[in-house]
Amino acid sequence: MTDRPAAAPGMRHRSMRDHNLGVVLGEVARRGTISRAGLAVATGLTKSTVSSLVGELVEARLLVAEGRTGEGERGRPGIGLGLDGGHVAGLGCEIGARRLAVRVVDLRRRTRVRLERVGSNRRSPAAVFAELAALAADAERRAHAAGLTLVGAGLAIPGLLDHGPVDGGPAGGRRVVAAPNLGWRDVPLDPHLAGLPPRAGLPVAVDNEANLAALGELRLGAGSGHPSFLVVTGEVGIGAGLVVGSGLYSGADGFAGELGHVVVVPGGAPCACGGRGCLETVAGLPALLRAAGLDPDGGLAPLLAALDRPAADPAGDAARAAVDEAAAGLALALTAAVHLLAPGLIVLGGTLAALGAVLVPRLDAALAAQVGALRGSAPPVTTSALGTDAAVLGAALGVLDAVLADPVRILPA
């Protein structure tokens, strides 16, 4: 058998070896547990090449022996290999309108550290990033105490992002173009990201929170096993993340997924984006609370309590009317999304997931009525399996995805 890496002709030996390390590590990640012999068959690499690559990955604490498996040579059991979850980890961070969250996730996708701070982040970026850096540093200390090494960080932000050149460029690198619910506009990111762990030049990736929520759902949540689905997240604002062919779709300029700014009430209430009648003005949490006669800064608990009140109770009736209006707006926006994008599944996240018992049947009925005649059936609507953690977990999992695809980035020179 000969090595058959998917490499360009003329690739240097070192580059081919680097590529093959990713091939082997990725195959173990997909299979869960597999023997060296099984890896040789699955990858098309020679047994001696697989053995050498596995040795490097075990030494780097990315793979670990896991007992015997039935995939050995000539019917004999082989030694199973699995991802080593005891050493390498990714750091996920999220800046939400009402909280900061940090998670440390190991290579087996287990959450090892979970920290957060609740409170408004509608203040200066410098103040928010300073607090996030302190929270992340605390998470890093806890991770190290558990024997974990952080190999990168990911950050979720609820806004439009410019992923322009990191090292210079007209805008000076990455920036927040607009995050209406944080009150931020044209905020350079790289100076603030420099204060986040891990240090030593390891990367900090940044993406829209809805995109990272979709990645979290794809890897660990309701989207697992679905190659095409739409995640709709709700907090102060509403965003959407789209998975196509088991990968994130962000659009030509990275601004795809702004479902919260689809107009559902022409000429309606003003939105933080500068428009009127956007979906956020009827289905965002502050809008829901305001329509229910509750404090718009009071959080979700009072709304849930009001929804539990009996029929003919004024507070309960107001809350139910507010949710009905939100469901109608969501149905309009999702009908357009289904006709345009044809997702196989719609996942409600964040505060929308907490309202799932009320929203899901309404949305299922509305979508069946509005798109079923044309398409035969509408995509099912479900709630997130990860709750409010989807985006911050997606941020950490993105770091680990990069390591699985290219483990050389963390190996010694």
Name a few traits of the molecule.
alpha/beta; five-stranded mixed sheet; 16 strands; disordered N terminus
> Beta-strand percentage?
15-25%
Largest sheet: 5 strands, mixed
Mean pLDDT: 87
What spatial order of strands do you see in the largest sheet? 6-5-4-7-11
Rough outline: globular
Uncertain runs are: 1-13, 166-171
Helical fraction:
25-40%
Q: How many helices does DSSP assign? A: 13
Structural class: alpha/beta
N- and C-termini, Cα separation? 30 Å
| Strands, count | 16
Secondary structure topology:
Elements (H helix, E strand, L loop, with lengths): L12 H19 L2 E2 H8 L3 H13 L3 E7 L8 E6 L4 E8 L3 E8 L4 E8 L6 H21 L3 E9 L2 E3 L12 E5 L4 E5 L1 H4 L10 E5 H12 L8 E6 L3 E7 L2 E3 L30 H4 L1 H7 L9 H7 L6 H28 L4 E5 H4 L1 H20 L5 E3 L6 H16 L8
Parallel strand pairs: 4-7, 7-11, 12-15, 15-16
Antiparallel strand pairs: 1-3, 2-3, 4-5, 5-6, 8-9, 9-10, 12-13, 13-14
Report on this structure.
- The structure is a single chain.
- The chain is α/β, with parallel strands linked by helices.
- It is built from 13 helices and 16 strands.
- Strands 6-5-4-7-11 form a five-stranded mixed β-sheet. Strands 14-13-12-15-16 form a five-stranded mixed β-sheet, with helices on both faces. Strands 1-3-2 form a three-stranded antiparallel β-sheet.
- Helix 2 packs across helix 3, helix 9 crosses helix 10 and helix 10 packs parallel to helix 12.
- The longest helix is centred in the last third of the chain and has 28 residues.
- The chain is globular.
